[in-house]
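Interim report, section 4.2 (structural modelling).
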Amino acid sequence: MKKINYFLAALLSLSFSFASAQTQKGSVLIKNATVLTVTKGTLQNTDVLVQDGIIKKVGTNLSAPSGVKTVDATGKYLMPGIIDAHSHVGLDVVNEATSPITSEVQMKDVVNPTEVGIYRALAGGVTISHAMHGSANVIGGQNATLKHRWGTKNPDDIIMMDAPRTIKFALGENPTRVHGRGNGIQPSSRMGVEAVIRNGFNEAIQYKKAWVDYNSASGQKGNTATAPKYNERLQTLADILDGKIIIHCHSYRADEIYMLINVARDFNITKLVFQHTNEGFKVAPEIAKYTMGASVFADWWAYKFEVYYSTAFNAAILNANGAITSINSDSAELIRHLYHEAAKTQRYGGMTDDEALAMITINPAFHLGISDLVGSIEEGKQADLVIFDTHPLSTYTVPQMTFVDGVKYFDIKEDKNDQRLTVSPTEMVEDVYLFQETERCMQDTEHLFEMTSTLFNQN
Amino acid sequence: MKRTLFKASVICMLLGGLMISSVGFAQSDPTGKKRITSSYAITNATVFTGPGKAGVKSNILIQDGIIAGIGSNLNIPKDAKLIAGDSLFIYPGFIDGASTAGITKPKDPERPENFVSSNPPDEIAGITPWRSATDQFAMDSKVEELRKSGFTVLQIVPEGGMIAGKAAIVVLGDSKSPNLLKANTALATSFKGSRGMYPGTAAGVMAKFRDVYKNAELTKVNAEKFTASSSVKRPGINDTYVGMKDVISKSTPVMFSASSELEIRRALKLQKELGFNLILTDLENYEGVIPEMKASGAKVLVKAEVPDDKAIKAQKDDASEDVKAQYARVKEAYDKSIAQAGKLEDSGIPFAFTTAGVKTGDIGKALKTMIDNGLSETAALAALTTNPAAMMGMSREIGTIEKGKMANLVLTTDSLFKEDSQIKHVIADGYVFDYETKAKKKATEDGNATDAVKIAGNWDYTTESPAGSGGGVLAIKKDGNEYSGTISYDDPGGSGKLTAPIRDIKLDGNSLSFAFDVNAQGMAIVVEISGTIDGTSMDGTMSIGQFGSFPFEATLTPTLTAKL
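Predicted structure of the assembly:
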């Protein structure tokens, strides 16, 4: 008997490990919705058929293949899953704030799929977030693009494996405060920030050459070449130069934005997205011409000196100049209603519905290098979808269901009170905070300036 | 017959010669502490030679730290000291998979004048693979406490930063010997960042670990080339490389401290990328990653501890439905946690225990809890003996009771995992350590009032609540069959202490409950206390009106006042 049990246990654990090797893909037919495709207009009374996580068909009078569930969305609105191009949700560590360049650090190493913020984001229709390293360093760590497949405890299940690599850069007050003022090293000024980046790239060029030389010499008979030191930090910078990684740069002022554009042009870098970009409206044509665009706040500023010259028309001005623009949260709270943030561009700048929705769907998808996979409702794309009760840009709208890869992860009718995936056996009732930190860009850096933290806002 | 006699006499002669020779080398011993003999014979004990083996009445002969014989018919040499084992049960000595007992953390080196926190020297950043636990180890009271709990062999782990140094295996025998069995047995590693310098977080530690490992590999290639031919640049050999050499050649495994599932996954990820041999240690929450651990082939050391049950005990009956639903989840988490070891056994992973960070006195209770919740006694004993022996590559020397193996034994008064079983002797490396055992507790079931739990006296108590810890004195008097008393507590309206009479004092078996009234700024609050008494300590909960329940602990102080 016991032997059989062991056998069964072995079998079960085996099938379990097979299941976890591949993320879940769902099939569903959503009937009779007002479909906001974002890229192909609005389709009334339309059905969307999802099979194995992919949008198979968008049309009318579609019928469900056997075994595929139907969701009646009559009178409701269906839009692509919302994408947040700047978030820190689902990370155990945000800042390795100890060096001006930490490009070797990977957020994928510290993803925590059980953080309840992921579920809250799903409840706000967000299916993908860009889990970024913080802004303490000039060149921070590599980010992780997450698909909100809530319910797993395995970080690999929520990391979007087909998304390209991205990395965090940061200009201005944060890196100069942490390293210059906090530790007395470069950079102490905006000029120092530029120097750190240029020196980094130049070192990376030398590093790459050293390895090319070594590899070609070590193939020859009787060579005396020795291997250079391995340096993932420089290797990552070399990968940026080779176009393998998209830069996402924390920035506020127009002069520093223009500075980085020039640095990028000098090093032939084109994969560059600006984050925050509060003064982006002053250099909108340049951003449009030389970069992949900007990801901005709808109306959030004045939390420190470099963020005073701001306007709620920023997104609209960038958009009008042809810069691909997205609206992001950078916050565990704003991520819950990014559709409101997008709607603000209609009040400030008169964006059309499609333009406003694009700022939280296809545009952020473009910034993350995944616009061929997600970000709009098109046949062949991944089925990340949200159903709203009214138009998602209405003040009164409430998300009803959220799907990732055709699997429903949020349903307002099945919303349990206690969504925690992990519960401590030794704590009776854990405190639950809706507001943790409004912005976590500077998380894990507190010890570097314990004194100054009381004097300066840390955003 | 004649032949046997002849053999015996030869053995006797040989042994005699041995004795004479040892007497011949004996030096004067003014301390009087030198032991008289290194031969011991335990007679007629119930011997369990290993996990899963039935107890057999046997004699065991120990000579010079080795089990010289085991069986019912043994010739006991004249110099052997006899230990009457008639009522004793003998098990192989326990082996601790990873221990920090006796380890003193080395002082942090001074920072150089040109110190840059973004690029600190390895030693300051907690990267010290060249260090050895043997340099930090001393046979102190904590080690003695572990031995008293049955442990005879420890894998000692150094203290330090992300790469603390090398573990070593010691036997807890002679206090004057270094007792080292093996050095460089594992590289102690953790996700601990350095404060205020690189690497400061788990993310930085993972990146730095890859860096250290890969550069050690490259240095090895360069060093080999340097030795093999001329005109090759000097390889960058440094202390870190020297310390990592055995790790990259896979003769020394990496021992990663990983208490949670996420940390275990991170260690497994690094193992997959870099290919080192892995020991996972300090495991607390691991149920969800058992299949992954098994697939990786990593060795597994579970913390010999279960979560405390204070939160479970603090649950109140009159809570709202929402709070009750949360109670249920905490209870579920607790039940799952204590059943994990059983699940690990079912998976077939041959795990062992670590006592690092564990209160030695609680180990027995923790093992009992695991056994009550699915772990078999055989697997528990294997985790204490044969499994760690195999992990250490020392199955030939330790782990079971066999002729020729090291004389590491635990002698108990009853079979090992029984409630009242106590350790009477521990033998490590042939050295015998005796411990006092208490008489078994008498059953109080037959209502024998004189044997009942004594509560009269002054108790010092402490409580933990969100407002901080509090405490005071609980004084209980006995008048005939009635109890009365007072309790002092922190004044909720300010500083100082207040005293109130206690009421509804109930003693049922060893569980005590009572209540008292507190007036907090005009609000009348009833405080109820209930708990269980074990000798002179009480462990319970204090519930304060609608504010919730909090842990309550008290100790009976041996004062005379209560006897009035």
